[in-house]
Amino acid sequence: MTVKRVLLGVTGATGMLYVPSLLEQLHRQKIEVHSVISTSGAQVLRYELGIDKIDLPYVSQWFAEDNFAAKPASGSARYDAMVVLPCTMGTLAAIASGYSGNLIHRAADVTLKERRPLILAVRETPLNRTHLKNMLTVHDAGATLCPPMPAFYNKPRDFDAMARNYTGRICDLLGLTDNAGERWKGEE
Fold first, then answer.
1. Is 155 exposed, middle or buried (0-12, 13-18, 19+ CB in 10 A)?
2. What's residue 177's pLDDT?
3. What sign results for the dihedral spanned by CA atoms 92, 97, 100, 101?
4. How far apart are CA 120 and CA 108, in angstroms?
5. DSSP three-state, residue 80
6. Are 7 and 155 a contacting pair, CB within 8 Å?
7. Each residue of 98-117: b (16+ CB within 10 Å) or e?
8. Hey, is 132 helix, strand or coil?
9. 0.85 exceeded by pTM
10. What CA dihedral angle connects 96, 97, 100 and 106, to 10 degrees?
């Protein structure tokens, strides 16, 4: 599959430092990005990064979370993949149960029914039994769970390097191998 257009859902979990990093990597690979941000996602974005959604680079189209007539609400829109970064446990629960409370939930449901890649950067710790059951449910439905867990074997210099490594992993999952993450080369 060749990825040319990705839908990015941004929800209200912590981890907003990954969003600009992913957008940068997708832009470098000439991937068109459309996005939906939840109300709580916008609040956390302002709290963690001090910016609004319009300050995020490389998003070619924004959709309101309550607009169920928007393109992402239909499989005919032909997004090649969807990433929810970060993904709250509430969003995970909605996707697991097929509940479309907002456009992010509906677009994720559409992505699964169309058998397209759905990557969920679930963010919570510790996990309870309900979280684990919901993760298994979306996994069995075809989603890929990719929690934002930084790697330290490559000795990242700072938070930006950690973010690039993680979002490079998301790009790998999308089949985009030209990413900024450092790969393990093994020991000599």
1. exposed
2. 75
3. negative
4. 9
5. coil
6. no
7. eebebbbbbbbbbbbebebb
8. helix
9. yes
10. 40
| Structure confidence by residue, pLDDT tens digits, 35-82 | 999 999 999 999 999 999 999 999 999 999 999 999 999 999 999 999
Tokens of 28: 């470098």
Contact of 9 with 36, CB cutoff 8 Å:
yes
> Which pLDDT belongs to residue 2?
82
Check whether 183 has a pLDDT greater than 80. Answer: no
Token couple for 179: 């990413």
Residue 9 main-chain phi, psi, to 5 deg: -100, 130
Residue written as token pair 């924004």: 62
The predicted pLDDT at position 180 comes to 55
